[in-house]
Amino acid sequence: FAINMDQLQLGEELGSGAYGTVKRVLHRPTNVAMAMKEIRLELDNTKLNAIIMELDILHRAVHSSIVEFYGAFFIESCVYYCMEYMDAGSLDKLYGVGVPEPVLGRIVYFMVKGLKFLKDEMQIIHRDVKPTNILLNKKGDVRLCDFGVSGQLEKSLAKTNIGCQSYMAPERIKGESQNALSTYTVSSDVWSLGLATLEIALGRYPYPPETYSNVFAQLTAIVHGDPPELPDSYSEAARDWVNRTLVKRPESRATYAELLSHPFLLEDAQRQVDMQGWVARALQWRDAKRQERIRKQEQEHQHPV
Ligand code: ADP
């Protein structure tokens, strides 16, 4: 079935990113809660139509590690993208001061399974692996979203891409600065996966902005510096796993199959991990932080300095 705006009852805003806002909506004909992303694009109808058609292959991306796609449509210059509503939101808001190793193992396992599925079954390279694109629900499911399926959409978004936290592999950073086309292979995603894993473990982006005076210094560190590592407090297996992803030479990085059969994820498979309990605690922490921020803002508003 094709989704359209008339069938949707709009709910609260779930968040906003670089390209638009995400709202919770109710699809009335099916009574399914969805998340609807609005992406404003200054394109003509032919191009917008092409994007909608390219997005259509997402209907085949059905996997327990992938956020389900329900459909997309456009109105005027906005593309609306409807997907499964993940009621715990994105991982960047949940990892707090870092997640314990068993939880890390489980999250990473789901991520690799999802990325491998996209690659093997859909011939899709994600291209934007980072904690904001990992969504969770209260049942403890971990799913990937926002992967590159529409060439037209990527092209239109690329122009506005300004991030101060780069998950790009060294070869991509070099490629971009030389204006080279298509230095992107699946191993570039493996680097981003490793960097995201490190961030989830540490509770912060691994190239902290305090250390680098500007984005250029940060990118230079990624290209020329030693790759960051997990601290000693993690198991040998976990540290080695991350080391296998953050290898500067793309040819030498681990493949998804190697990462899945690595001791870190073999150990993970043997463990019982209460993901549901962890998500519940992470949500409490996230919401307490939010309340604190709102209180602070109110105080500043009442007593401006
Ligand atoms: P970004 O551009 O930073 O990736 P998005 O625009 O994709 O951000 O999403 C903004 C925020 O909306 C996310 O950080 C997340 O909290 C929320 N969000 C996105 N998709 C969903 C979803 N399917 N279910 C619930 N929340 C979502």
From TrEMBL:
Keywords: ATP-binding, Kinase, Nucleotide-binding, Phosphoprotein, Serine/threonine-protein kinase, Transferase
Similarity-based family: Belongs to the protein kinase superfamily. STE Ser/Thr protein kinase family. MAP kinase kinase subfamily.
Keyword Cell wall biogenesis/degradation among record annotations: no
Protein name per Swiss-Prot or TrEMBL: mitogen-activated protein kinase kinase
Protein's UniProt keywords contain DNA damage: no
Signal peptide residues on this chain, from the entry's feature table: none
EC number: 2.7.12.2
GO molecular-function term, one example from the UniProt record: MAP kinase kinase activity
Chain ranges of the Protein kinase domain: 8-265
Residues of the full protein shown: 136 to 440 of 446
Top EC class, one word: transferase
Binding locations of ATP: K37
GO cellular component terms listed in the entry, alphabetical order: cytoplasm; protein-containing complex
GO biological process: cellular hyperosmotic response; p38MAPK cascade
Species, as recorded: Lactarius akahatsu
